[in-house]
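subagent[fold] <- orchestrator: predict structure for attached chain, return tokens only, no commentary.
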Amino acid sequence: MMIDDVKPFGGLLTSYARPQRADRISPDRRMRDDVLRANRRTAYSAFAWVMAFLVWHVVWYATGLGFPSASDQHGVERVVIQVFSLVVVLMVIVGALLPLALAQPWGRRVPRWVLLSAAWTGAVLLAARGVSGVGDDLVRVTGILPRGFTGLTTAQTLGTSQPSFWCLFASGATDVLFAVGGLVFALAAIAYRRVTPASPGRGATGR
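subagent[fold] -> orchestrator:
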């Protein structure tokens, strides 16, 4: 038998050997890989939401929709808006870094409980803002509570007594966006919680 005649059989044996090696992967290893993939998938989904949130704010400005400005207020109201604006900026920065910390190796340097606490805090705040906003929109539109949950008129909440269709749509879409943000951060927190802590010396999350 010539050497060339042997090669096809060698390749055939090799092709059968590969799936056998894959089959020897333990169920625990497969489960761990699935958990890590879910962690990365949900974390990057949360990061994508933050980017969409920033883009949506650009759309607001580009289409002429405004936000409460401290320059238009005086006294305590001006201070409140300034503090609120600062808090929002800090939340956006933390919100952009947090999902990456949940998914990437450098996040192991941060204590696990800190990341989980931050993720759940973000989820609760976003969900509360989104759900309350959607609920407020619904009771106003249906006429159940013409002044909504806050008791404010449409002119007080939107800055005009006759808002355009785009203004109403953008306001409602923003509320939905917040609610979605609460969901994706909650999923990211749940997925990260499932990641089994590694043994000493191998990192905080075992990734």
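orchestrator: received. Logging for downstream: The chain is about 75% helix and 0% strand. Residues 139 and 145 are 5 Å apart (CA to CA).
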